[in-house]
């Protein structure tokens, strides 16, 4: 059996096993086992990939192709390149740590959680547009229930809003995909084959817009990002982690796997519009975060800013910047998951996320606080942590464009690093430092062992990428060669 | 000299050891381990200096750079990558010596000063982190490596200023320091981006390959808003330097940074990190001189203004650490001016040489001043000079060493400050008499405020203390003595022989007219301070009353902080962030909500038509068909 299919089968099997039993111990055992196995197979996949890469120069590795629905030529076609591998690793890490952050959740929660994982992994391995879209939907739908049922605050409203906005995006996407299919001759849905066919310029324009906006909604493209603050704020910890950490990456990944890769000419022609939007998003998200008082809102706006940088870098359409985009997806995925997991730790004890009602937590829960500071440093791009590597690659790449338009936008985007420092340090200063505001907080306990596992694993990944970036950078850089070829072809 | 990489790595190992081991290590053990850990890099640095300058004297008579270590860290594209390496040349070795020495002294000193403090292990871990970052900065082989460590020193500075994190002032100060320097670093980053775009490299040696004219020609060509790309790049890089080195108007973070523990102020905010900006300009000096001379002029005048401005403020401050902080700003500005006025080749490089010399001597005597002030604060438990006086009787060692440092900074021979200041003044005189005049006047002010500080702490009012003050413990006095000895002897190093912009040795002599004028001006400053402050009198109050407008303005630091406060609070927070947040919630999100509710309303409105009665449907259907038929026939 193809190793890639394993990534879908494991969560599926976990899901089925969950349905068999009920006890908390059983559920935890199954989920930890399942996601541990998933992480293991992701790592094995990465190792195998590196081996295979050395001997093969095919664009996609581990390719498998099964006809699935003959009349429309829909295949279950899978295959990975370096970028998918990186995304799969990210998803596996975040999914695994998310389990520990959701330690006290019940079986039903984890069942939906597994379904979400099926969608995510299926999406990253798919080479067939239709299959990819299907997995995309599979990943989005559990979100409604996970937020609506297990969330906090205005959860129904938030869940509804998130789902509707993302579904609207999906509608655009589906139209775009069908457009690609029919205009390219209706013979194949395989991305690699489609890339060999040429979509006429007039059609490229509208399809590019549809697909880019469709994926962009999930990637927090300004001004379609507003589901994010409400959605994150209402979602339970591990759902926020998975959503901001992995699901938002589905958007960025799709933008370049489908929009840029299949419609390179339109990308060249239209990138300026979206560059302006994403450029605004980067700065706007950062400014939006400065005066927020809810920890999750701060982080949600921060995500708008950081994910904006992903799309921004993709649209720069050069090798370095796009490498930076993937690095930024990876980095943002890890650190935002870390943030949400720590916010979960804090919230579960203080029962508030309002930074005005907290203070001096460093002395009360030193472990969680130190991790929070590290996450903050990663977010504001401190060298030695992953954020720096990603941001610098993006900026250096973006600056390779010699014209004034790109230059000005790049400079604009760089200013976000100052604003990021402002809101991160403001939060850290208010929540962790200073005197203890609420004396009830004095008897709170620090993170439990399962929460510590989650935080430590994520920090380890952030530090590894930050200290030794060349490994992952190399994989991404090489894998982008086909995309670059596609872009220079026209 | 491959071992030099360990100078950087050992502090890193110490940091990891102390931060992970903090639970198992007793405070005392952590302190001793940290201190011992710092001794090795210090010894290695001395050995490196010995090898480079004396034993091997590598490519004598030219002090060329040697890369002893280099590895690729991050590749951006096929021909642009960040390397991590160790580059040795005159100024980097000088900085190695300065950083490791002062760091070692501070490590020893802190054993006494920080004794019994909560978070002792964390303190030592952070000191190691800082030392690692700072050492990585000075040996950087390329500008991006420098930027990386530049950010790391900023972060360690943030963590150390905020060491007493339960105190709101410390938290605010640490935040301010980080954000102000981050803002400046934005300029640095953009400068690097421009520079690397035009030169295609980050490597210092390649950028500065004057013979190959790489930086000079390619960057002078393209222009933006009437200035060449080189001018933009170098001006923006100077912005980064100005932030770190607290040049006006980015100086505001440094006085507040005094909220950190005093030994930290001595190490980071007096001797090492704050001079990183000067070091950066010195590192890039040939590029400034040949590709962007306008920026050097800018540096000169920014430095000149800052020197005078900070000295004026220092006169009026009553918190002894603040006086020292403003003094630091003023002295660093001196170094900046010296770089700005410097030329190239032989005597013309005097400004450069003496800038580095002043950096070197200042590091020791300013660290000494801070550590001395720390000893006083340690026993008095206050920073305010109002509650001090007559301490010379209680603290003889602190008193003598402090006096030596004060004489040195005032430019009195034979102490080190005299030699370095003299060279700066003569370089300034060669450049322009006006610059020389202002610097000379500042030197007088310096002598005055330093001796104001000295007399008010150690002389002045004979106070009756509740608990009699006592001399500091040995762990604190030994570093004081070592630094005092260094202050006495370092002036005699023939610096021009080792450090010059064209890396060729040359000889300079003391310029007696300049030297005499500076001694006289310094002496006048000291005597005025003595007249005012040696004994308790109402003379200072009279003076302050006479100059009340100026005094008040200077005391409030000329309201620059308020201007910045206005910019951040009113403009950025209220003017941008608030509206953005509102706009997002009400306009962007509002639109989405309207779309949602609009859909809901529409369906609400038309749902009545779905009655489920077939007859109704049939009637509507038939009627519609008839209407359409009529329409088609008629039209």
3D structure, described in words:
The complex is a heterodimer of chains A (490) and B (635). Chain A has 490 residues and is mainly alpha-helical. Chain A contains 21 helices and 2 strands. Chain A has one domain (3-489). Chain A has helices at residues 3-20, 24-55, 82-101, 107-125, 129-150, 155-183, 191-196, 201-218, 227-234, 237-262, 264-290, 295-315, 319-350, 361-364, 366-379, 386-398, 404-414, 416-431, 449-467, 470-479, 481-489, and strands at residues 61-69, 74-80. Chain A starts with a helix and ends with a helix. By secondary structure, chain B is mainly alpha-helical. Chain B has a domain at 292-536. In chain B, a hairpin with a 2-residue loop joins strand 1 and strand 2. The N and C termini of chain B lie far apart (98 Å). The mean pLDDT of chain B is 87. The chains are: A mainly alpha (490), B mainly alpha (635). At the A-B interface, helix 6, helix 9, helix 11, helix 13 and helix 16 of A face strand 1, helix 5, helix 6 and helix 24 of B.
């Amino acid at each position: 059996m193809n190793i890639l299919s394993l990534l879908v089968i494991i969560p599926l099997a976990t899901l089925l096993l969950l349905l068999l039993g009920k006890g908390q111990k059983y559920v935890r055992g199954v989920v930890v086992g399942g996601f541990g196995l998933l992480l293991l197979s992701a790592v094995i996949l990465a190792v195998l990939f590196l081996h295979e890469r050395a001997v093969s120069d095919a664009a996609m590795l581990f390719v498998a192709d099964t006809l699935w629905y003959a009349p429309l030529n829909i295949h279950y076609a899978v295959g990975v390149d370096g970028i998918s591998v990186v995304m799969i690793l990210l998803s596996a890490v975040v999914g695994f740590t998310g389990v520990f952050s959701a330690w006290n959740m019940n079986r039903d929660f984890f069942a939906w959680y597994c379904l979400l994982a099926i969608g995510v992994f299926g999406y990253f391995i798919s080479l067939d547009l239709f299959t990819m879209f299907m997995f995309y939907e599979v990943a989005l739908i559990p979100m409604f229930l996970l937020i609506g049922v297990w969330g906090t605050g205005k959860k129904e409203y938030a869940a509804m809003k998130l789902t509707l906005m993302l579904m609207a995006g999906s509608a655009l996407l589906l139209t775009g995909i069908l457009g690609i299919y029919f205009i390219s001759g209706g013979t194949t849905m395989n991305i690699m084959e489609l890339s060999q066919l040429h979509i006429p310029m007039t059609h490229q324009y509208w399809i590019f817009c549809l697909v880019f906006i469709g994926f962009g909604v999930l990637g927090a493209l300004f001004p379609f990002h507003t589901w994010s603050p409400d959605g994150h704020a209402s979602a339970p910890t591990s759902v926020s982690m998975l959503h901001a950490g992995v699901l938002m990456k589905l958007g960025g990944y799709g933008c370049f796997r489908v929009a840029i890769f299949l419609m390179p000419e339109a990308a060249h022609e239209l990138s300026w519009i979206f560059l302006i939007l994403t450029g605004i998003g980067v700065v706007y998200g950062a400014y939006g975060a400065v005066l927020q008082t809810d920890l999750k809102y701060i982080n949600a706006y921060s995500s708008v800013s950081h994910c904006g940088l992903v799309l921004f870098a993709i649209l720069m359409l050069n090798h370095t910047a796009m490498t930076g985009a993937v690095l930024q997806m990876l980095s943002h995925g890890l650190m935002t998951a870390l943030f949400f997991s720590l916010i979960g730790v804090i919230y579960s004890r203080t029962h508030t996320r309002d930074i005005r009602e907290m203070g001096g937590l460093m002395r009360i829960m030193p472990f969680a606080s130190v991790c929070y500071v590290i996450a903050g440093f990663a977010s504001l791009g401190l060298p030695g942590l992953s954020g720096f590597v990603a941001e610098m690659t993006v900026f250096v790449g973006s600056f390779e464009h010699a014209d004034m338009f790109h230059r000005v936008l790049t400079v604009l985007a760089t200013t976000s690093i100052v604003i990021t420092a402002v809101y991160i340090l403001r939060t850290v200063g208010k929540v962790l430092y200073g005197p203890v505001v609420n004396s009830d907080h004095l008897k709170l306990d620090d993170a439990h062992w399962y929460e510590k596992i989650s935080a430590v694993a994520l920090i380890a990944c952030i530090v590894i990428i930050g200290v030794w970036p060349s490994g992952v950078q190399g994989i991404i850089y090489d894998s982008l060669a086909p995309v670059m070829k596609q872009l220079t072809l026209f | 000299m491959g071992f030099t990489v360990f100078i950087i790595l050992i502090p890193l190992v110490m940091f990891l050891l102390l931060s992970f081991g903090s639970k198992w290590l007793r405070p005392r053990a952590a302190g001793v381990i940290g201190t011992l850990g710092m001794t090795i890099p210090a010894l290695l640095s001395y050995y490196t200096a010995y090898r480079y300058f004396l034993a091997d004297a590598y490519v004598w008579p030219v002090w060329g750079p040697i890369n002893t270590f280099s590895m690729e860290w991050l590749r951006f594209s096929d021909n642009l990558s960040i390397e991590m390496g160790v580059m040795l040349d005159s100024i980097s070795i000088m900085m190695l010596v300065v950083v490791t020495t002062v760091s070692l002294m501070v490590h020893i000193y802190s054993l006494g000063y920080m004794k019994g403090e909560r978070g002792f292990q964390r303190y030592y871990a952070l000191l190691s982190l800082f030392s690692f970052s700072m050492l990585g900065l000075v040996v950087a082989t390329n500008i991006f490596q420098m930027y990386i460590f530049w950010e790391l020193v900023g972060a360690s500075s943030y963590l150390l200023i905020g060491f007493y994190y339960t105190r709101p002032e410390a938290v605010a100060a640490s935040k301010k320091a980080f954000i102000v320097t981050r803002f400046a670093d934005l300029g640095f980053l953009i400068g690097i981006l421009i520079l690397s775009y035009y030169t295609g490299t980050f490597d210092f040696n390649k950028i500065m390959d004057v013979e190959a004219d790489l930086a000079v020609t390619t960057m002078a060509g393209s222009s933006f808003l009437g200035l060449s790309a080189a001018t933009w790049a170098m001006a923006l890089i100077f912005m980064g330097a100005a932030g770190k080195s607290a040049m006006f108007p980015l100086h505001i973070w440094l006085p507040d940074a005094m909220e950190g523990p005093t030994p930290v102020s001595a190490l980071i905010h007096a001797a090492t990190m704050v001079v990183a900006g000067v070091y950066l300009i010195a590192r890039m000096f040939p590029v400034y001189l040949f590709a962007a001379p306008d920026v050097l002029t800018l540096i000169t005048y920014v430095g000149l203004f800052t020197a005078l401005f900070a000295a004026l403020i220092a006169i009026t401050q009553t918190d002894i650490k603040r006086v020292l902080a403003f003094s630091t700003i003023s002295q660093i500005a001196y170094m900046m001016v010296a770089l700005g006025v410097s030329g190239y080749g032989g005597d013309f490089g005097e400004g450069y040489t003496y800038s580095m010399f002043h950096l070197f001597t200042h590091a020791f005597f300013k660290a000494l001043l801070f550590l001395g002030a720390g000893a006083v604060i340690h026993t008095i438990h206050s920073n305010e000079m109002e509650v001090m006086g007559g301490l010379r009787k209680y603290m003889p060692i602190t008193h003598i060493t402090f006096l030596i440092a004060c004489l040195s900074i005032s430019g009195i021979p034979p102490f080190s400050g005299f030699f370095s200041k003299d060279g700066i003044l003569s370089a300034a005189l060669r450049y322009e008499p006006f610059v020389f005049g202002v610097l000379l006047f500042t030197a007088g002010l310096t002598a005055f405020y330093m001796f104001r500080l000295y007399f008010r702490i150690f002389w002045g009012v004979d106070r009756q203390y509740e608990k009699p003050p006592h001399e500091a413990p040995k762990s604190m006095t030994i570093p004081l003595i070592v630094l005092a000895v260094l202050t006495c002897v370092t002036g005699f190093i023939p610096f021009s022989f080792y450090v010059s912009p064209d890396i060729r040795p040359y000889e300079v002599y003391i310029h007696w007219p300049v030297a005499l004028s500076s001694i006289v001006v310094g002496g006048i400053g000291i005597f005025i301070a003595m007249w005012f402050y040696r004994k308790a009198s109402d003379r200072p109050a009279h003076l302050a009353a006479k100059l009340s407008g100026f005094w008040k303005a200077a005391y409030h630091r000329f309201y620059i902080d308020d201007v910045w406060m206005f910019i951040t609070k009113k403009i950025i927070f209220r003017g941008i962030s608030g509206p953005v947040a509102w706009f997002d919630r009400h306009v962007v999100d509002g639109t989405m909500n309207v779309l949602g509710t609009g859909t809901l309303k529409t369906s609400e409105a038309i749902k009545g038509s779905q009655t489920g009665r077939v007859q109704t449907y049939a009637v509507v259907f038939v009627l519609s068909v008839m209407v359409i038929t009529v329409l088609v026939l008629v039209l």
